[in-house]
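Provenance

Sequences were taken from public entries as deposited. Structures were produced by running a predictor on each sequence independently, with no templates supplied. The record for histidine kinase from Ramlibacter agri is shown for reference.
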Amino acid sequence: MSIDLVAKLRNMLQVMAFCLAIASIQYFFIPDRGYGPPLVYSLAIGMVTWAFIDLGRHLLPSSEETGWPKGFPGVAIVIVGIVIGFFAGNFIGDVLCLHFHLYQGPPPTDLAAETRSSVMITVLATIACSYYFYSAGRSSYLERKMGEAQRHANEARLKLLETQLEPHMLFNTLANLRVLIAIDPARAQQMLDHMIAYLRATLDASRTTTHSLQAEFDRLHDYLELMSIRMGPRLAYELALPPELAARPVPTLLLQPIVENSIKHGLEPQVQGGRIEVRARSEDAQLVLEISDSGAGAGAGAPAPNGGGFGLTQVRQRLAALYGEAARYEFESAPGTGARTRITLPLAAT
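Predicted structure for histidine kinase:
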């Protein structure tokens, strides 16, 4: 039996506030007897009744939707709780009021009428509180279900985006391999070996929407090795991942589309090629990922010409679906000075 102590404390404070309100109403109509007795009796009856009913909810099989037993058992614990709470609470109230000399004014002239009034207040208050907690439990359940449905929808959307992105990466790599086979079979063989390693990692990653940052950097390494074989000395790169961030989960294929775009539109147009740096760091409780290049100035995060930029669009959409406004995607570039893309994610969510 798992009990949320914080929720129980919150419920207890709500019951005490309700008892305080009842005592205040009683004192308003019968002020000559003082505020002490109605407060003591209200708290004693209310707390005993609540404790019995709440304990019964956990001992009996309860509905996942409301947290209350279904059918007759749910009604029975309320009825028994009213009876036990009334008699036990009155006994506790009698003892406390006598011990602390709280009684003031003349004794009640009609004890039967006072008892009926007390019973009526106990019944109505218990039913009202029980219905309140029943409704609160149902509302909490519906909120959880809505949250789960939203998470499932986001996961489905992410998987759809990934299935669109994977062929995009594969086709580009195969096109590069086809060209290389014709001009340098040995290097094409090396490229094929790296591609096999890359595809194996891609297949593993396709089974989930996230993987470790280390796995993301490993895939970047395989991809950049593929490109290094094709571009030769025109491509230099550096991957910097602090060990303490290696296990942090990130969306699969988060950085590779940016690196690919940086090569295609930043480095390849230059005769001398260029350099790409990918770095990860923590900053103000956030995970910061930076991709910079020394390309032509339309590299890492710029939209590709002629309606391209598919991979970058997918990156932005996946970040929005997974993190909402908590994630930031920033791009800056100037002609001839390269480009820099900065992705910021909350560390608490990674």
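DSSP finds eight helices and seven strands in the chain.
The longest strand covers residues 274-282.
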